[in-house]
Prior knowledge:
Elements: H1 7-18, E1 25-32, E2 35-43, H2 50-62, E3 67-73, H3 82-94, E4 98-106, E5 109-112, E6 126-127, H4 135-142, H5 152-157, H6 166-174, H7 185-206, H8 212-221, H9 225-233, H10 240-253, H11 259-272, H12 276-289, H13 294-304, H14 310-328
Parallel strand pairs: 3-4
Antiparallel strand pairs: 1-2, 1-3, 4-5, 5-6
Amino acid sequence: MTTLTSPHDLLAAVPFLVGYHPEDSLVVIALREEEIGMAMRIDFPREADPDQIDTLANYLVREKADSALIVAYLPDDVLESEYIIDSLRSAIEIREMSIHEILEVKHGRWRSTLCGDEKCCPPHGNPVPEMQDSRIVAEQVIAGKRVPFENLQALKESLAPLPLDPELKKLVRKVADIDYEDESTSKLQREGAHAVDRLAKEFIETGFTEDKALVALVLSRLQDLQVRDYAMGITNNENIDSLAAMWHWMLRRAPKNYVAPVATLFAAVSYERGDGAMAGRALDRAFEDDITYPMAKLLRRVFAAGWPPQSFATMRAELHPKICASLFGE
């Protein structure tokens, strides 16, 4: 993201960083040599929890930040933010990072808690500027970034299941399950991996597929952990946007009991793209389908710990060749 030169820039940037216009939230943004990094958002705390404070501060350490920005979106019944901001500020400074700006936003007005000049930062705050007038918004849209959702509810609705396609459901049920006691296991796993490749090729080339039999085969074979891990490993810098669109498309159409693998794949690719809010909601969909799904539990811990998104690229580089060797003997 471009350099932020004013509080107006910061307020315009936050929705792009978290994926929607936040409310009742505390947002911490990592800076490294004044370059904007990832943002971490939590629900605005009702009390200063030391563990939560350490999670936010340690996130900045993992991002290798040298400084930070803080934006507090205060709930209506919270009169001030000092009880949480002071603790967070101390935790960040103890880790030898500076804080460039702290903004409070409430009732459509913002104020800087670091600015003592009442001419530019009056005690009652300034009106939050119209986002469409910001150069930040224009630059992000031109760069191809998705326009942030209006609120968290709108984001959730973007992942809501579509009415079930009876034909797709019938085709999924026709796909033979993998019998792990049978010698055909490897063949069916390879069939699944090749189906994932064909589906990805269609989305990369056209952004869509009309091949319901292929979709059904992929949904069924993703129940296999090897095939799912293979699918996670095919992401790269060139195809990540197309695959994000593909898993999102699949997630909204997957029948019950076939959602969790697709949801975790979409969560992983969303997180790697810097869309933590979307990643978190995708995991919600996974747990709604299967509360015990191990990969969803693992990703939830990873996201909560604030792992840098680059960790997924590193994980792929290490694991994908091993998955391919296991599936294809190469």
